Structure to design on (128 residues):
């Protein structure tokens, strides 16, 4: 498995909850679904909302260019999570990057499709 630096947002109000890197040649759908379901369970989200998030992530993966060699998924949450139930929202960003396979080989870059998923608490927007 490849190790690349994670995209930590400059805004410290976000915290990386989980990340996953897969070869695009692997059976990614089942692995992504299993990983994302486990990740979202940490937040006790509603099944309906979790289903929408999963569909969005799979849609983003489906939009990757053919030449992509790796898929990287990053899930962010607010740095301070609410103690009780709230209404959640999300947005995603996608990015294609050429990255070196390791720290010593900068000539043979790999194409990586990164999907960044940001989960936020709608009730708390603007209250920070």
């Amino acid at each position: 498995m490849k190790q690349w630096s994670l995209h930590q947002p400059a805004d410290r109000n976000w915290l990386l909850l989980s990340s996953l890197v897969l070869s695009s040649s692997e059976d990614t759908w089942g692995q992504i679904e299993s990983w994302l379901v486990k990740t979202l369970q940490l937040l006790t989200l509603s099944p309906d909302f979790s289903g929408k998030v999963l569909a969005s992530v799979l849609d983003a993966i489906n939009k990757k260019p053919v030449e992509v060699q790796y898929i990287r998924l990053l899930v962010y949450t607010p740095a301070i999570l609410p103690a009780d139930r709230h209404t959640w929202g999300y947005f995603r960003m996608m990015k294609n990057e050429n990255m070196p396979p390791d720290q010593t080989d900068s000539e043979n870059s790999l194409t990586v499709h990164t999907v960044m998923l940001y989960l936020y608490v709608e009730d708390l927007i603007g209250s920070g």
Q: What stands out?
A: Strands lie at 14-23, 70-78, 88-99, 110-121. The first strand starts at residue 14 and ends at 23. The CA atoms of residues 14 and 78 lie 5 Å apart.
